[in-house]
Design brief:
Elements (H helix, E strand, L loop, with lengths): L1 H5 L21 H15 L4 E11 L4 E12 L4 E6 L2 E5 L3 E6 L4 E6 L20 E11 L2 E10 L6 E9 L5 E8 L4 E11 L19 E4 L2
Parallel strand pairs: 6-12
Antiparallel strand pairs: 1-2, 1-11, 2-3, 3-4, 4-5, 5-6, 7-8, 8-9, 9-10, 10-11
C-alpha cells in the first residue's frame, strides 16, 4: 500500500501513472473552476505543502493514515516528497524512490511526459483525459468548498472517480479522494500550502550519505 503514496501516483502526494487519451468532455462550470485552480498553482515557481493520506479499506475492515510534506518546482519537473516510510526525489531527470522499511533506493528516469500523472503536475493533471461534473458545495468546519468529480476516460484506470474539493476562498485544493475499483478510498488532504517558499536546489538531489546502508537498485 505504501508504494501508492509516493511513486508516480500522489499525493499527493501523490499521486497512478497512466497515459490519458482523448479529449475530456466537461461541464463548463467545472472546467472554469479547474482552470482557476491551475492558474493559482501555475502562478508560483515553488510550492510547499503538508499532506495527509487516509486509506479506507471497508472490505478488509482496515484503515491507514500517513502524513508527509511535499516540495515542488513544477516548471523544472523537480520535487521532494517525504513521509515516515518513504521519500521520493526528482531533479527533473532522475527519480529516486527511497523505501525506508526495505532499506532500498530505486532509481528510475523521471517521467516528464505531459500526459503522465506525477508529483510535478499533481495540481494540473486533470486538464487532460477526464470528464468533469460539478457537485453540490460542501463544508469542512468553517471552510466552504466547491466540489468537482472527475472520471477517467481510460477504462483501464484502476479507479473510477476522483472527487476534488476546492477551497472557495483561495482556489487551492483542500482534498482529493480517489475511488478505487476494488472498493478502497484514498483521500489526500492538503494543508499549510506555501507559495514561492525559498527551497534550496540541493533538496531536489539524492544524497546517498542521507540514507546510509541502503541498497541502490538502478532500474534505468
Amino acid at each position: 500500500m505504501n508504494r501508492f503514496i509516493v511513486s508516480s501516483h500522489f499525493l499527493l502526494l501523490g499521486l497512478l501513472t497512466l497515459v490519458m487519451q482523448g479529449h475530456a468532455q466537461t461541464d463548463a462550470a467545472a472546467k472554469a473552476l479547474l482552470n482557476k485552480v491551475s492558474k493559482t498553482y501555475e502562478g508560483h515557481k515553488t510550492i510547499q505543502a503538508d499532506f495527509t493520506l487516509s486509506v479506507q479499506q471497508p472490505q478488509q475492515g482496515e484503515n491507514f493514515t500517513e502524513s508527509g510534506i511535499i516540495y515542488m518546482d513544477a516548471k523544472a519537473g523537480k520535487y521532494h516528497i517525504t513521509t515516515s516510510s518513504q521519500d521520493l526525489i526528482s531533479d527533473g531527470k532522475t527519480q529516486w524512490m527511497i523505501l525506508k522499511d526495505a532499506q532500498e533506493v530505486q532509481v528510475t528516469d523521471a517521467d516528464n511526459s505531459s500526459e503522465a500523472i506525477s508529483p510535478a503536475n499533481i495540481f494540473s493533471f486533470y486538464n487532460k483525459g477526464y470528464k468533469y461534473v460539478s457537485a453540490p458545495d460542501e463544508r469542512a468546519g468553517n471552510t466552504s468548498l466547491s466540489v468537482v468529480e472527475l472520471s477517467p476516460e481510460d477504462t483501464r484506470a484502476p479507479y473510477f472517480k476522483i472527487k476534488l474539493r476546492i477551497n472557495k476562498a483561495n482556489n487551492l485544493i483542500y482534498d482529493a479522494t480517489i475511488f478505487d475499483k476494488g472498493g478502497i478510498k484514498y483521500t489526500y488532504t492538503i494543508k499549510n500550502t506555501k507559495a514561492d517558499p525559498k527551497i534550496v536546489p540541493d533538496r531536489f538531489t539524492f544524497h546517498q550519505s542521507d540514507y546510509p546502508g541502503m541498497e541502490i537498485v538502478d532500474l534505468r
